[in-house]
Amino acid sequence: xxxxxAQPRQRSISFPxxxxxxxxxxxxLLSLLLLYFIGVDQGATSLFGSDTHIxxxxxxxxxxxxxxxx
Amino acid sequence: xxxxxxxxGLGVGLLxxxxxxxxxxxxxxxxxxxxIDYEDGRHEAQEAxxxxxxxxxxxxxxxxxxxxxxxxxxxxxxGMALFGLAVGGLFVVVYLIVSRRYPDIRPRVLAALLAGAGxxxxxxxxxxxxxxxxxxxxxxxxxGARSALYVTMVAVSVIALGLAVVVGRWLAxxxxxxxxxxxxxxxxxxxxxxxxxxxxxxxxxxxxxAEFGDFATxxxxxxxxxxGTIVYPGFPADLLFRFRFYSVISQLVxxxxxxxxxxxxxxxxxxxxARRQSRTATAAADRPTVAxxxxxxxxxxxx
Lengths: 70, 303
Fold this sequence. Notes:
The structure holds two protein chains of two kinds. Chain A has three helices and no strands. By secondary structure, chain A is mainly alpha-helical. Chain A has a domain at 20-65. The longest helix of chain A has 21 residues, at 19-39. Chain B contains eight helices and two strands. Chain B has helices at 2-52, 68-101, 107-129, 143-175, 177-198, 208-212, 237-285, 297-302; strands at residues 223-224, 230-232. In chain B, β1 (223-224) and β2 (230-232) form a beta hairpin. The longest helix of chain B has 51 residues, at 2-52. Classes of the chains: A mainly alpha, B mainly alpha. The interface between A and B is large, with 34 and 61 residues.
C-alpha cells in the first residue's frame, strides 16, 4: 500500500548561491588562475600559443618560488 | 561582511609578496645571476666541444624576450607580488570557511595556524620532494613532465593536510587533543611519504636517463671532452644550496607576513561590529554631544 511518493525536500535547495559563497568561490578561482599564470603557463602548457612573454617576464620569480622552469 | 576580510586577505598577501621580493632582490638575485652565468659558460664550452668534434653549431639560442635587468628587477617583483596576492586570496577563503565553522578560535591564532599549514602544505612538503631549482638546473625537454609532477605533489600535500586535520578532529574527542594532533601529524607524514616514494624523481623523467645517465636530479654534471677530461665543472653545490635556502626563507617571509598582519586585522574586524553598535547606541542616547571617539574603547579592550 505504501507507494513511494516523491516528496518535495528541503535538500534540493541545500546549496543556494549566496553572496558569501559567490565571493569565496570567485576569490578562490581567480587566485588559482593567477597562480597558474605565474607558475605554469607558457612552460608546460600555454593559453596564448607559443608566446613566452609571461614566462620570461616572471622567469626569476618562477624559479625562486619553486615552480619548474626550463 | 566577507568583503572586508577578502580585501584584507588580498592586501596582506600582496604585502607579503612584496616583502619576499625585497628579500629576494637583495639576497637571492646575485646567486640567480651566478647560475645564469654558469649556464652561459657551459653553453659556450659545449659549443667549443661540438666545434672540435666537427658538429655544426647548434641552433639552440636564447632569444631574449626581456633583458636580464627587467627580469631581475621588475619581473621578479611583479611575479612575487602577484604570487603573494594569489596566496592571500586562497588563504582568506580558507580562513572564512574555517572561522565560520569554528568561531571559538581566536582570529590571530587561526590566522597563524592556517598560514603555517599553507607554508608546510603548499610549499615546504612539495619542496622536500622537488626543491626549487635555479636557472641552469632543469632540462627544457622535460618541462611538461616536471610541471605536472610538481603540481601533483602540491595537490597531494594539500589534500593530505586536509585529511589529517579531519582525522585529528575526529580523534580529538576520543584520545584527547594532544594525542589526536600527534596522530594527525603521523597520518599527514605517512600520506605525503607514500606519495613521495611513488612519484619519480626529476632525473628519471622522460629521456633523462638515456641521455644523461642515472641521476636523481637534473643538476648539471661536469662537462667532459671525449677523452674524459673535465672541460666545464658541474653545477656549484654551494650555489645550489644558497638558492634553495633563500627560496625557503622568502616563503617564510611571505607566510609569516600573512599570519601576523592578517591576524592583527582580523582581530580588529572581529571587534568592529560591537564597537559600531555601541557607538550608534550612544549617539542615539544623547544626540547633542559630539560623537565620542572613545565610545568604543571599553569594548575593544575587552576583545
